Amino acid sequence: MTDFASLIVADRGQGARPIHLVDKDGFADWAKRRPAEDRALLEAHRFDGKTGCAFAILPRGNDFEVVGAVKDVAALSPWCLAKLAASLPEGTYRLAQGDPGKAALGWLLAQHRFDRFRAKPKDDPVGPRVLVTGEAARIARHVQLAEATALVRDLVDTPAGDLGPAEIEQAVRDAGNGAEVRVTSGAHLTRDCPLIAAVGRAAAPGREPRLIELEWGKPDHPRIAIVGKGVCFDTGGLDLKPASGMRLMKKDMGGAAHALALARLVMAARLPVRLHLLIPAVENSVSADAFRPGDVVRSRKGLFVEIDNTDAEGRLILADALDHAAEGKPELIVDFATLTGAARIALGPDLPAMFANDDALAESLRQASEETEDPLWRMPLWDPYDDMLKSDLADLANASGSPMAGSITAAMFLKRFVPDSVRWAHFDTFAWRDSAKPGRPKGGDALGLRAVFRHLERTYPRQ
Fold first, then answer.
1. How far is 164 from 162, CA to CA, in rounded Å?
2. How far apart, in whole angstroms, are the C-alpha atoms of residue 279 and residue 90?
3. Which CATH architecture group holds 144-459?
4. Which of the chain's ends, N or C, has fewer CB atoms near its CB within 10 Å?
5. Which CATH class is domain 4-127?
6. Phi first, then psi: what are they for 296, rounded to 5°?
């Protein structure tokens, strides 16, 4: 992974090229104070402070300064320095006024590359661009957020042939920090987590399903559980997806990537919690042993589930994991999943759908979303739609026969496996970008991660 710690350093008076940030409201006054040759150069380049992500080089003898246009100088966004970090020559830079704050994230991530599958890197960087900041105490946090985001991106971008349940297990084991890791598989999984076992039983040898758990922190601290959907590849099962729908299904473990990244942030920040991470890791494959539409499977909780659609597999594996998480009596459960196309139809690719069974929890997450500029949008747990999951044969079906309210009915299915007494938030996230933006390349991405971590930081502050 990129060495983010080398790309941002504390200000100790070292030499650094200045970056002047301007916005459309302040550009004219700023330009009046510049030398005539600067004004002429900016005019020649039609730089007027109004174009987001634009920048210009101001020569200074054998060196130069930089002027960059941002939306609001007084409130820098996480991504307003990303274009500069990706485009400037190698060297050390500092803002001419103020510190980068949350904009440090974009500076770091703009220099991250995932070149594991290139014989020769596509874009050879010119060299590191180092940012100097006066906020020395915040450097570690900037680096941790960048590492967590890059972890999500790298895991999601890894092809399914190179990232199966065993590789997700290893990624959890690599989290370290003195955490205890347990894995349930084979006959024990069939007995204890029958929904997880059913979804993954058609996978090839070496890609068998498993429930991966990590526990960390002092037992007397508040217990929280983080659950992530780990479908390493989703063919749709016997309800086979079309080719167009299967092309991106390597990203169906995006929930697991988010959950692992969040767990690593919690451990790195040493939040005073007893952390329980649960990742049901499976491959939804097709074989003679695949589970079938119409099958009835008994869940860990004891509820019998009729399989209406084998392509609604994510909620099945999450159901057993959520029930197991609830057995530990946590005061909070958070789950991430690339669960429904319906959420994308409703909210598009950038807005994870958030469902919560507690209004205060939902409001805290909304505030954290605004603070971090990591958007979320609350959707309703609408009880009347629970009727859409009725089964004539079993306690409930795993999908609705209606084409409407797909993300809500999926959340209502999960709600059956979470006790009303436990605060719970469910995030139906895309974990992907269809097009590139500064600091955010096309491919896997963390959506909702920073917002949830900010909520946890505020709820469980370090003493």
1. 6
2. 40
3. 3-Layer(aba) Sandwich (3.40)
4. C
5. alpha beta
6. -120, 125
Q: What residue spans define the domains of the chain?
A: 4-127, 144-459
Which tens digits make up the pLDDT trace of 326-385?
999 999 999 999 999 999 999 999 999 999 999 999 999 999 999 999 999 999 999 999
Show the tokens assigned to 326: 């609830």
3-state SS of 384-417?
HHHHHHCCCCCCEECCCCCCCCHHHHHHHHHHCC
Strand partners, 425: 334, 356
* H or E segment and range at residue 343: helix 341-347
Active-site annotation, residues = 241, 315
Q: What is the token pair recorded at 216?
A: 């960390």
Provide the β-strand partners of residue 129: 91
Contact at 8 Å (CB) between 39 and 49? no
Q: Are 342 and 320 in contact (CB under 8 A)?
A: no
298 with 304: CB under 8 angstroms? yes
* Cα dihedral value 457, 216, 258, 341, nearest 10: -110
Helices (H) and strands (E) in the chain, counts: 15, 20
